[in-house]
Amino acid sequence: MEENYHLGPNAWLSLTSKLLTLFGFFLLGSFLGQFFGLLAVVYIIGFPTANIEQFQKMVMDFMVHPEKYENAFQGMMALQWFTALFTFVLGSWAYLHYIEKRSISELNVGEAPNWKIFLWAILTILVSMPLLEYVIQLNQNLILPAGFEELESWMKTSEQNMAQLTKFLLNFTSPTDFAIAIAVIGGMAALGEEIFFRGVVQSLFERYIGNAHVAIWVSAAIFSFIHMQFYGFFPRLFLGAFFGYLYVWFRTIWVPIAAHFFNNAWTLLMHYLYQQKQIQINPEELGAMVPWWSALLSAALVAFYIKRLYTYKTD
């Protein structure tokens, strides 16, 4: 990879400066994404713009209760699309272009991976799902120690708000809704988040700290935290770490993007099939149905598949 830096005061100062600059591009991209996303919402929903006060109230109400509005699903997906595009993709592009003087294409420094690598990465995601569902249940049952009541209350409120939004975004009324969700939640989210968290954030930590493992897990923790769903923190942390190792092993951003896309798309597909009554198991209740032995078997399979992936890295 690129040159490693010694962990002296100047290196820490440089790393902190770059992280703060990246965060600035993140905030700017988030602002622009929400701005253009809300313009799309206004166009799709058809909010009246003559009365500014009424317009503002309707926009705020839409953000809290989108289910009350016609075409709200398309409007919310447009908002998600623009937010991910500007925050993660264009934010990363701007940082790389103006600060590091390189392009997004330079995140791919390894050789084009064999198609079997993509297959094994996707299979690893697939066999990990019982384990992740089991971890989700453990995570949701965690109780903070005494003295953290306010923090726990804030975490629960954030979790409830995100859960309501997620439930709305996973309610498909037509095949078109499902296709839009695949493009936005599956495609754009995977593309943007992998470029940002693995291609930029993780690479920064790895260059300056000089330890890929630390870089992977710190970046995965930031990746999980930023979703603001703390009762799913640990399974998302493990997923982020897996994506991080894929990037370190193969040095092409397309492998973690493909694995991330499959993970998101599979979740969307299970919800769609359940709503279409093609399967009987509710994906939201799947975690409570996973026994410990199934999670243990899943962990063993994950270990085997990761070892198989690593052999491709060392070939």
Brief overview:
The chain is mainly α. It has helices spanning 9-45, 52-64, 72-98, 115-140, 149-169, 175-209, 212-225, 233-250, 254-275, 292-314.
Biggest sheet features: none
Computed structural class? mainly alpha
> What is the typical, i.e. mean, pLDDT?
89
Terminal Cα separation, in Å? 18 Å
Q: How many separate helices?
A: 10
Relative helix content: over 70%
The gross shape turns out to be globular
- Mind telling me the C-alpha Rg? 21 Å
Order of helices and strands: HHHHHHHHHH
Number of strands: 0
Oligomer kind: single chain
Outline the low-pLDDT stretches: none
Strand content: under 5%
Write the topology of this structure.
Layout: H1 9-45, H2 52-64, H3 72-98, H4 115-140, H5 149-169, H6 175-209, H7 212-225, H8 233-250, H9 254-275, H10 292-314
